[in-house]
Write a structure and sequence with these properties.
heterodimer; A: 291 residues; alpha/beta; Elongation Factor Tu (Ef-tu), domain 3; Rossmann fold; Dihydroorotate dehydrogenase B (pyrk subunit), domain 3; 3 domains; 7-stranded mixed sheet; 7 helices; globular; B: 334 residues; alpha+beta; 2 domains; 8-stranded mixed sheet; 4-stranded antiparallel sheet; 32% helix; binds flavin-adenine dinucleotide; binds iron/sulfur cluster; binds FE2/S2 (inorganic) cluster; Sulfhydrogenase_beta (chain B); iron-sulfur cluster binding (chain B); 4Fe4S_Fe-S-bd (chain B); oxidoreductase activity (chain B); Helical_ferredxn (chain B)
């Protein structure tokens, strides 16, 4: 690969799909087949998208490494550059560099139950885990607890509803919490009364018991969500070492140079871009400011 | 280590020979401040300087640098490095470069930094502390490596430590300028170092410092100083180990753009700002405290992120003193 880690590689936008009014799913393929061949990653890692001439921004990989030949990014229109990429057309080229970060320890978790807890856009990196787990079938039960604002905000809605209907055979249980009521939500709730409710993501824990010896929790969502979800998990005696979360910070380089993503104090400093973005709750206990 | 002696008489020949290795930069005086500038003549140098405003990092981590240039939709590398000689670095600044090395030369290697670092010859020089220096407390008052040659002042010249293969090459090429070191030179060297050691006025007791600072996270002292602080970011700019950078694409005309990076400061409000307006360090208190924690972090393989050069004190418009802040924070634990 390139001598210069700041250099991105050309990737073609194969497909752009509206997931919600704010989020689009981009399917990309590297122009150079050799680059595509070498590009492997683990769920939880991210790439930096290079809008040449306009800037760069970090985005989680939301596809799974088990599905080769393309990568997918779910991008929310949040500001200047993400607005710009939303305006691009299929067939156009962007730069991609990465993958960066540590990702989730998929091997270590083999044979265990996984509880994925997603809030809003946090569904994006966890979709990679979800696919990976279902594709490899190396895990016991896979649960997805997903909290969204409204029906219109549910990312990958078709996939989620499909899993609600047919996931059982794959050992997959999907639960959904929404905050804003709408006819569509009510309809969904009627179909899956035990798994869809009005409320926040922590409400989905109600009545659930886990095999704490054999379960990992993987969390991704807005900053406020972590403490509440972690409390639920600790209440059920899940070990802090089995609670994984993926975090967001301002990032410029993605490779531990620019200093923007540094958190911590004199006893423990972490770079979210290279020591993370996946951390355990133990890490959060020893590094202030992580969550 | 190999040791040779350079006499006062031979200094200018030695100095002139350095131009064979590249452009020579050395401490000079501009108005009331010292600065590393290109020099052509020995007369321009201030050998007895205290500290320059910008540390030697400016040669490797440029205040502003072009990384790429956009041509036909593709980035072209813009790295350029020329051979330079940095003459007269103090021990703390050499340690500062070692800390930057740790960041930029660790995988993945930053090619811009590496190219410039490899082309730079580093010549250290001994110094006497002033009221701002506390390198002694941090173990950075003496450089054991990280230089090609190190000149220690003697009454009649310099005791020169040869620290690298390139240092050997210089000593070799200038063989007739150097002499063997005598017992008297050794005595003088020892005396100088002892005198220097006794001249430190500022001290930062290091025992348990990292933990005590961490324990004092909610200390009112942080708040007290954050209120005095102007958030100007000077302390970041002048620090030999601060190296946060911001990246920005800039159009030159409708066809060409450059990607530049430039110094950033954790005192700036947008340092931790992400999309949607969420800021991970929203208040000045958060940012002030963050800088102190970052500087006081102890990395078992490279030490503290502070080398005790005293620049942040000397160039702080609010007269905030680094050691005093840390001492007060630690004191507030009681
Ligand atoms: C590890 C990681 C994974 C992410 N994954 C996703 C994802 O899967 N989907 C998604 O939609 N978003 C994701 N984000 C957030 C995404 O990076 C920001 O939404 C994006 O950078 C906003 O850029 P902008 O120019 O549109 O926004 P603006 O608000 O216009 O940004 C202003 C400036 O701040 C910078 N900036 C803003 N937010 C961030 C940020 N979080 N990190 C670094 N720089 C930032 C931008 O680069 C820009 O220069 C992720 C962020 C991180 C750190
Ligand atoms: S130089 Fe002084 S006033 Fe300026 S940001 Fe640093 S501590 Fe604050
Ligand atoms: S924190 Fe201050 S004293 Fe320490 S290295 Fe930086 S500028 Fe020098
Ligand atoms: S993003 Fe630059 S150091 Fe982490």
């Amino acid at each position: 690969m390139s001598e210069n880690p700041h250099q991105s590689y050309d990737a073609r936008i194969l497909e752009m799909k509206d997931l919600t009014p704010r989020e689009k799913l981009f399917t990309l393929r590297f122009l150079d087949p050799e680059v595509g061949e070498h590009f492997t990653f683990r769920p939880g890692q991210f790439v930096i998208v290079d809008m040449r001439g306009f800037g760069e921004f970090p985005i989680s990989l939301c596809s799974s490494p088990t599905r080769k030949g393309y990568i997918q990014l779910c991008i929310r229109k949040a500001g200047r550059m993400t607005k710009f990429i939303h305006k691009m057309k299929e067939g156009e080229i962007v730069g991609i560099r990465g993958p960066y970060g540590n990702g989730f320890p998929m091997e270590e978790m083999e044979g265990s139950n996984l509880i994925l807890v997603a809030g809003g856009l946090g569904m994006a990196p966890l979709r990679s885990v979800l696919w990976y787990a279902l594709d490899t079938a190396k895990y016991e039960d896979v649960w997805l607890f997903y909290g969204t604002k409204a029906y219109e905000d549910i990312l990958f809605r078709d996939e989620i509803v499909h899993l609600m209907k047919h996931g059982k055979a794959m050992g997959c249980k999907v639960k959904l919490a929404y905050e804003v009521e709408s006819p569509s939500c009510v309809y969904l709730e009627r179909g899956f009364s035990d798994r869809v409710c009005k409320g926040v993501v922590t409400d989905l824990f109600r009545g659930e018991i886990f095999d704490v010896e054999n379960t990992y929790a993987l969390i991704c969502g807005p900053p406020v969500m972590y403490r509440f979800v972690i409390r639920e998990l600790l209440d059920r005696k899940l070990s802090p070492g089995r609670i994984y979360m993926t975090l967001e910070r301002r990032m410029r380089c993605g490779i531990g140079k620019c200093g923007h993503c540094i958190v911590g104090t004199s006893t423990s400093i972490k770079y979210v871009c290279k020591d993370g973005p996946v951390f355990t709750y133990w890490d959060a206990l020893s590094t202030r400011g992580l969550i | 280590m190999r040791y040779v002696k350079l006499s006062i008489e031979n200094f200018s020949s030695f100095f002139n020979s350095l131009r064979n290795w590249g452009k020579v930069y050395a401490p000079t005086k501009r108005g009331s401040i010292y600065t590393f500038q290109e020099v052509h003549d020995q007369e321009e140098i201030e050998l007895n300087y205290t500290r320059t405003m910008l540390p030697p990092k400016k040669f490797f981590v440029r205040p502003r640098e072009k990384m790429f240039q956009l041509k036909n939709g593709h980035w072209e590398n813009r790295s350029n490095a020329e051979p330079i000689v940095l003459f007269g670095l103090h021990s703390c600044d050499i340690h500062g470069l070692k800390i930057l090395d740790k960041v930029y030369l660790e995988e993945p290697i930053d090619p811009y930094y590496k190219a410039r670092r490899e082309k730079a010859l580093i010549i250290g020089i001994s110094c006497m502390p002033d009221e701002y220096c506390f390198c002694k407390s941090l173990g950075t008052r003496f450089a054991m490596d990280g230089f090609d040659l190190f000149l220690h002042e003697l009454p009649d010249g310099w005791l020169v430590r040869v620290g690298s293969v390139r240092g050997h090459e210089i000593a070799w090429a200038n063989e007739d300028l150097f002499e063997e070191v005598t017992d008297e030179d050794l005595r003088n060297f020892k005396e100088f170092e002892e005198k220097r050691s006794k001249s430190f006025k500022k001290e930062l007791p290091g025992e348990g410092l990292a933990d005590m600072l961490d324990l004092a996270y909610n200390s009112p002292v942080w708040k007290k100083y954050a209120e005095i602080c102007l958030a100007c970011g000077n302390c970041n700019m002048v620090c030999p180990t601060c190296r946060c950078y911001e990246v920005c694409d800039r159009w030159i005309n409708s066809y060409e753009s450059v990607r530049e990076r430039r110094y950033d400061s954790c005192f700036m409000e947008n340092h931790g700002l992400v999309a949607g307006g969420h800021n991970f360090r929203p208040t000045r208190l958060d940012r002030f405290r963050h800088r102190y924690y970052c500087k006081s972090y102890f990395d078992p393989s490279s030490g503290y992120n502070c080398v005790g050069c005293g620049r942040c004190d000397e160039f702080c418009p609010a007269k905030i003193e680094h050691v005093k802040v840390l001492e007060e924070v630690r004191g507030s634990l009681r």
